[in-house]
Amino acid sequence: MSEQKTVPTLYEWAGGSPALERLFVRFYERVPQEPLLRDVFAQMDPHHAQHVAAFVGEVLGGPKVYSEEHGGHAHMIRKHMGRNLTDEQRRRWMSLLLETADEVGLPDDPEFRSAFVGYLEWGSRLAVINSKLDLAATEDTTAPMPQWSWGAVGGPYQG
């Protein structure tokens, strides 16, 4: 009998919660020195890095911690609403996060980085779009949690 090989999730490949928390803790340590980003995150919750790590971890195939403890994707959408983020801020967020991924030793193989960057591009562009929405006018609590993988056809909402 042959052994069936299982493909690890992006979450597993990245190194799980410890690696993602290391990434986002270091990233948000760097944000106050960034002129384009510091004001956006000036009033950040002390646990913001851990919450973002849990959200990204869940999207990449990890445990459903963010959904169970913080309200899932609908909650994340509401966090961005009314912030009026710019594409210039989004691009700096992206570049700083990828610099930080290198700094903390996140896997840098082409397959992982391609999938990871794909998610960050998609998610950060969605955040800019959502930041233009009025919180009072939008109360959609049914937004499904995205699921990102190695590039399977179907988009982030296919389970």
What labels would you give this structure?
Globin-like, single chain, 159 residues, globular, mainly alpha
Task: Give a written overview of the molecule.
- The protein is mostly helical and 159 residues long.
- The chain has a single domain, classed as Globins (Globin-like, Orthogonal Bundle), CATH 1.10.490.10.
- The chain is built from seven helices and no strands.
- It has helices at 10-14, 16-30, 48-59, 65-70, 72-80, 87-104, 110-131.
- Helix 2 (16-30) packs across helix 3.
- The model has no long low-confidence stretch (mean pLDDT 88).
- Pfam families: Bac_globin.
- It comes from Terriglobus albidus.
Low-confidence parts: none
Q: Helix segment count?
A: 7
Radius of gyration: 16 Å
CATH 4th-level superfamily: Globins
Task: Tell me the number of strands.
Answer: 0
Average pLDDT: 88
Summed up, the domain count is: 1
Second CATH tier, the architecture: Orthogonal Bundle
**Overall body shape:** globular
Using the coordinates shown, work out and report the CATH topology. Answer: Globin-like
Largest sheet data = none
The CATH class is identified as: Mainly Alpha
Euclidean distance between termini CA atoms: 30 Å
Beta-strand residue fraction? under 5%
Pattern of helices and strands: HHHHHHH
- DSSP helix fraction: 40-55%
Alpha-beta classification: mainly alpha
Question: Could you write a compact summary of the structure shown?
Answer:
This protein has 159 residues and is mainly α.
